[in-house]
Amino acid sequence: MLASPILRSHVPGRFSLSKAHRCAFRGLATHASGFRIPVIDFNRYQIAASTDQRQETANEVVDGFKEAGFIYIKNHGIPDSVITNVFQKSASFFKLPEDVKSKLEWEDPRANRGYVQIGRERVTQSSDPDEIAAMRSKSPDYKETMEIGRDWDPVWRNRWPQESDCPGFKDTMLNFFQTCHELHVSVMSSIALGLSLNERFFDDKINEQYHNLRLLSYPPVKTEILRQEGQARAGAHSDYGTLTLLFQDSVGGLEVQNPHTGEFHPAVPIPGTIVINVGDLLSRWSNDILRSTLHRVVAPPAKQISETEQVTPARQSIAFFCNPDFGALIDCLPNCYGPDKAKKYEPVTTEQYIVQRLSETYL
């Protein structure tokens, strides 16, 4: 778990390091067990000085996804000011009265848009409705979210607050949605290159922008609640699509499972980086060569509020869940199977897989 003296932050998503910890902080992506989430300078791919440099960075990306399923990227091209503004607008939204937010309630897994109150979602790897219902009743995820999709969809509409309630919210999120999509395309191109495919292999399979921008708010919570059996801010799960771009604040709490040992390790916030992980559909596409790794959100260090009680701090994060086009057929990539490696999965469309998982996850 992240020790509180290492980071100081006054604005969500912005960090400062105490001088004594600067050197140690550079190595925080590697844990004592040897589990390592690599930090990759993605600018070396986007503005490569040579073909060799582009290939080298693409190989680093793919190697990270093969080993851990997670990477950090730095020099990714999204300005700090843009990310800070998104965090500020997100915080403003979650501060709205509950009756205002509830008018924007999430209603349909095919849409996957709108406000989700605390306790409604229970992320898990289970697909048994009764088991999920029991877990949700006993230990719901202690978070609230706002789900945003492509705004021009002909069927499913985003559920926006009134401009007067949250000024600038809609424009900020739409611009950020497009920015994240463009980064997704670039990272997928690097994956194609690292897998010895044509760099543009994925372009016509991810261009319809069936993504999900999720704003997350983890309110302060008494630690006695989080100590209950099975309780977490977000339970252990994998993501559903191709990639997830995660923007963390300085509080911490994300943990990633070491695929080799089953242990969970902190994916600590590193200033100026984005955490990226492989989702289920990209893992299926690659015949599990790229790992869709389990992860969870646990309680960061708590503050003592009485002789007998502690409370964890509030936490914010922004997740951009990248998906293939909903009609895209996810079948094993041509160079990920052969005589010595059979296909592990039947083909499935993006829509079939994601709607099924969302239907199981939400109440």
From TrEMBL:
GO terms for molecular function: metal ion binding; oxidoreductase activity. The keyword Iron applies. The keyword Oxidoreductase applies. It comes from the Eukaryota. Pfam families: 2OG-FeII_Oxy (PF03171), DIOX_N (PF14226). Residues 209-324 form the Fe2OG dioxygenase domain. Belongs to the iron/ascorbate-dependent oxidoreductase family. This is Clavaminate synthase-like protein. Keywords: Iron, Metal-binding, Oxidoreductase.
